[in-house]
Amino acid sequence: MAYALEQVRPYGDGASKREEVETMFNHIAPTYDRLNHLLSLGIDRRWRKRAVEWLRPYRPGRIMDVATGTGDFALLACRTLQPEHLTGIDISEGMMQVARAKVLEAGLAGRVDFAREDCTALSFPDASFDAVTVAFGIRNFEQLDKGLGEMCRVLRKGGHLVILELSTPTRFPMKQLYGVYTHTVMPLLGKAVSRERSAYDYLPRSIRAFPQGEVMRGVIAKAGFGDVRFKRLTCGICTLYMATK
Predict the structure, then answer these.
(1) What is the DSSP string of 110-128?
(2) What is the pLDDT of residues 196-234, one digit of tens each?
């Protein structure tokens, strides 16, 4: 199935969405963390902790963090859950360079590694991981169904999926306030800090186009997952999705 999200691209320069997303993240990698925390007023740290805590009772031994970016979620998951090994994957080498430096600084080089992978065609064998996580990256998938299908394939039976994604509040007044913030403040801050306005114009457009709530629960279930649940966080600015294979 095709989703409106898959047609939302950072530049619209004729390249594929995957290529445009890779270029965008390579450009913004040096300022990504600073802007990420600034734009969310630091609340993104709480969202990550919430997602990791949901996994804690299952004690996953092998974890794959998809669209790992600069590694914030991977590092938090490794410190909190103490898995045997965690593999972060991404299409942006620029972002993973930042992540690798963080891992070295944290002394976790033997337990966390990173690999350049296309989430729609993963190189890992079936049932390779006990948990798969995606934090703020699933909006960027070129083919949502295919990406979810691949994550299901590499997850062992009984393993767990966790997705954190930005979403659009539905209730007054947060809906109206968030609209003003994402349309006006976010692009201006993005341009001021990163000199890359296209990336922060793309961000709110991709949030609006992303299937949310009950719709996304159906998309995840269709990919082969069961017991799919979701929880809206911070008045609906972020949504946590949880599922089991």
Answers:
(1) TTEEEEE--TTS--SPTT-
(2) 778 888 988 999 999 999 999 999 999 999 999 999 999
Task: Give CA–CA dist 97/77, Å, rounded.
Answer: 19
Residue type at 115 in one-letter notation:
A
Q: Could you identify the residue written with the tokens 């337990």?
A: 111
Residue with tokens 């593999």: 87
Looking at the DSSP assignment, which residues form a beta bridge with residue 135?
164
Q: Cα(117)–Cα(120) distance, rounded to whole angstroms?
A: 9
Q: pLDDT tens for residues 33-79? A: 988 888 888 899 999 999 999 999 999 999 999 999 999 999 999 99
Tokens 């890992």 found at = 124
The pair of structure tokens assigned to 103 is 């891992």
d(CA 241, CA 162): 6
Query: How far apart are alpha carbons 168 and 1 in whole angstroms?
Result: 22
Across the chain, what does the average pLDDT equal? 94
| Helix-strand-coil split of the chain, %, nearest 5 | 50, 20, 30
Bridge partner list, 233: 238
